[in-house]
Write a structure and sequence with these properties.
The chain is an alpha/beta fold and about 325 residues long. Helix content is about 45%, strand content about 15%. It has an 8-stranded parallel beta barrel with strand order 3-4-5-6-7-8-9-10, surrounded by 5 helices. Strands 1-2 form a two-stranded antiparallel ribbon. The termini are far apart.
Length: about 325
């Protein structure tokens, strides 16, 4: 693995390090990008560029993303990569094939390992909070998986600070393995919950943060400056249009171009660099449908933001 410009950061207070930028598979591999040579080229380019963290979930295209990425990751030295997957969302119509019950967790890990083609996951995420399952049942199942060697660390995704704290207190009281990482949405347009709730809790408890949707589903790239192109996410997903497609939001994104030009980068690179500049963030999960898009995103590695530029962006995109 090359990528000498890539930085590697500890996942909170643990020994394992992850690349500052990661590659995720949501809505892409095995779904919108189904061509196997393209998938291989993207993942190989990511690995050659220094990315060691690859983020998947069983729900991504109902297991097909795990298969698609796993078939390529199998050719990389296992000790050089960090593979993460997740459990929570329904994988069938069966009443127990969902959530964070002990039954679903124990059955899902076996299926994920088989689809990816690995003996263990470096990180296994509880993909959402399960209001129908006691937290202690979930954390005990995760602790057992660590003891069984099927996962090395476990984490949460899109949990609130209070939910993260509750799980941590149970682990402390019962002498169970703590969750090590939280995976929340975080970008210039979505700051409040992360900065005022999740980040302070995670930092206090020594947990890493790996963030997703850094470009707000493409809005921060400027692709929607003059309308919604056919086939894009905002064209296909109504709730995204409702959240982001308004003149106030688009005007802020257009104004961002001035700062990007000052730094000689794209708006996408600027948005990624802004997240990476947050010392609480261990890794920024990016997506890519082509090698060129991946390379463009990784151009953010070279974008260095001083405190003045960070302040400018924070004012342009307030909490």
């Amino acid at each position: 693995m090359s990528g000498t410009e890539m930085n590697y950061v500890s996942l909170g207070r643990c020994g394992m390090k992850v690349s500052r930028f990661a590659l995720g598979g949501w809505t892409t591999f095995g779904d919108s990008v189904a061509d196997k040579p393209i998938i291989r080229n993207i993942l190989q380019t990511a690995f050659d560029s220094g990315i060691n963290y690859f983020d998947i979930s069983d729900i991504y295209n109902r297991g097909e993303t795990e298969r698609a990425m796993g078939s390529v990751l199998a050719d990389f030295p296992r000790h050089e990569i960090v593979i993460a997957s997740k459990v929570f969302f329904p994988m069938s119509d069966d009443v127990n094939d969902r959530g964070l019950s002990r039954k679903h967790i124990m059955e899902s890990i076996e299926k994920s390992l088989q689809r990816i083609g690995t003996d263990y996951l470096d990180i296994y995420f509880c993909h959402r909070f399960d209001v129908e399952t006691p937290i202690e049942e979930t954390v005990r199942a995760m602790d057992d998986l660590v003891h069984q060697g099927k996962i090395l660390y476990w984490g949460t995704s899109e949990w609130t600070g209070e939910q993260i704290n509750q799980a941590h207190e149970i682990c402390d009281k019962r002498n169970l393995y703590f969750s090590q990482v939280e995976q929340p949405v975080y970008n210039l347009l979505t700051r409040n919950a992360f900065e005022n709730d999740v980040q302070p809790t995670a930092t206090r408890l020594g947990k890493g943060l790996v963030t997703f949707s850094p470009l707000a589903y493409g809005v921060l790239t400027g692709k929607y400056d003059n309308g919604i192109p056919q086939g894009t996410r905002l064209d296909q997903i109504e709730w995204l249009r409702d959240r982001y497609y308004n003149e106030e939001c688009l005007n802020r994104v257009r104004q961002m171009e001035t700062y990007a030009k000052q730094l000689g980068c794209t708006r996408a690179q600027l948005a990624l660099a802004w997240i990476a500049a947050n010392p609480a963030v261990s890794s920024v999960i990016t997506g890519a449908t082509s090698v060129d898009q991946l390379k463009d995103n990784l151009g953010a590695i070279k974008v260095k933001l001083d405190s003045s530029m960070i302040d400018n962006l924070n004012r342009l995109f307030p909490l």
